[in-house]
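User: I'll paste a sequence; please echo it back and then give the predicted structure.

Assistant: Echoing your sequence first, then the prediction.
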Amino acid sequence: MAHDLTRLTSPEEEELGAKQVELNRLSDLLGEKELELRDLRLCLAKFQNRYFRRVGAKYTELDVLRARIAEAKSQQHPQDARLKEAANDARGQAERTAREYEGFRQNPESEEMPPVTEDITEFRIIQ
């Protein structure tokens, strides 16, 4: 008579096996989600490139025009400290916008973008 030896698994071993199956499933799901996240980040970067390419220069020009208007108002009323402060704030905003746009434009990953048409360095500092 041959004896058939069958190994019995303990409840702990069965639970470990089930946990291993679940871990494998979750690992696969994590990999899929990481790929989806990478794809979404790529889509977001492409959108940002398109957005800055289309409206970045226009916002820069708009801020330059706002600064010029504020500066003209300040020159019309040289004693008005509020207008001087508004002109300085507007100029600062125009400079920040231009730096951000130029930094983005010079990024090798961004597509061809037009240069800013206004030279923001021509603003005079109002004392």
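Residues 116-127 have pLDDT under 50 and may be disordered. The chain has two helices and no strands.
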